[in-house]
Amino acid sequence: MTHEAMTVVDSQTSAMTLDDPDAMIEVASKRAQSLKKIIDQCGLSVRIGKGEHVMVEAWGTLARFDGCAMTQIGKATKREDGAWEARAGLRRLSDGMIIAEAEHECGGPDDAGWHERKNKDTGEMEPVSDYAKKSMAITRAMGKVCRMNYSWIIVLAGYSATPLEEMPKDHITPQNTIPHSAEAKTEEIQDYSGEEWEVKNWYPYGIPVYPIGKHKGKSVTELPEQYMEWGLENLDNDSAKAMLTKELERRRARDGSM
Predict the structure, then answer these.
(1) What is the 3-class SS of 210-222, one letter each residue?
(2) Which residues contact 1 (CB under 8 A, 6 or more apart)?
(3) What order of strands is seen across the sheet that includes strand 51-54?
(4) Cβ-based neighbour number of residue 13 at 10 Å
(5) How far apart are CA 14 and CA 9, in angstroms?
(6) What is the pLDDT of residues 178-222, one digit of tens each?
(7) What gap in Å lies between CA 140 and CA 162, rounded to an integer?
(8) What are the angstrom distances between the C-alpha of 138 and each of 8, 134, 135, 202?
(9) Which pLDDT tens digit goes with each residue over 105-124?
(10) What whole-number distance in Å separates Cα of residue 257 and Cα of residue 218?
(11) Residues 148-170 pLDDT 10s
(12) Could you state, in order of their start, the residue ranges of all structural domains in the chain?
């Protein structure tokens, strides 16, 4: 599978298209500083070895700084080897035009931790659920299209250019992984069974902690669905809305309503 990307941006407000290099760096640096504050506030990065990798919610926030939004293109498809493939794009909000596209996959035989996992209770290897692999394929495609366009700004903010979701699962161990040390941290990664195992499939790097409002400090899995639907309609915080969107997708996939 080819992971391709295309960029055609002509907005004069985009940090990618300013004619003056100094002005371009100035705009990009301001966005990098603002993004770092959001990452610190929401705990949207994890240090793996010597690199600190950010979650797709942070990449999506950076896209919004540029007047764009991540979007799924078409339907994810399942291959014969069990992997899911997905395509995502960057949609320019001013006119709805797709300005970049990328593909990614999840759950193939060589995808450590995503093809099958060990069940804590039985000790046996079990296949990862299709809805978890499908969701991660979409998430990876969204991170990919943002990385192809904004990785240089992420580097300016002091982070690795590789999205967290693209890191191999066998690289993420207690010995070399440190969750971001922010006030709002992701919960400690642990072994789960039953319903908690299903949650881990969606949040393999830790359950995000909600950063704002009356539910600040709660795990996103604890949020009332009525509030989540209200938040998607009324909130201006892109990071919070990205968390709500992903959690609603998880619940609807669990309930078979996707």
Answers:
(1) CCCHHHCCCEHHH
(2) 85, 103, 105
(3) 51-54, 45-48, 177-179
(4) 11
(5) 8
(6) 444 433 333 343 443 445 656 766 676 667 888 888 998 888 889
(7) 11
(8) 22, 6, 5, 12
(9) 999 999 888 888 777 778 78
(10) 25
(11) 999 999 999 999 999 988 887 65
(12) 21-207
d(CA 144, CA 249): 20
Tokens of 179: 């969750």
Tokens of 125: 């290897």
Reported pTM: 0.68
SS3 assignment for the chain: CCCCCCCCCCCCCCCCCCCCHHHHHHHHHHHHHHHHHHHHHHCCEEEECCEEEECHHHHHHHHHHCCEEEEECCCCEECCCCCEEEEEEEEECCCCCEEEEEEEEECCCCCCCCCEEECCCCCCEEECCHHHHHHHHHHHHHHHHHHHHHHHHHHHCCCCCCCHHHCCHHHCCCCCEEECCCCCCCCCCCCCCCHHHHHHHHCCCCCCECCCHHHCCCEHHHCCHHHHHHHHHHCCCHHHHHHHHHHHHHHHHHCCCC
What pairing do the DSSP bridges indicate for beta strands 84-92 and 177-179? unpaired
* Contacts for 136 with CB less than 8 Å, ≥ 6 apart: 84, 106, 107, 114, 165, 204
Structure token digits, residue 216: 């600040």
- Phi, psi for 43 (deg, rounded to 5): 65, 50
Structure tokens at 164: 């967290």
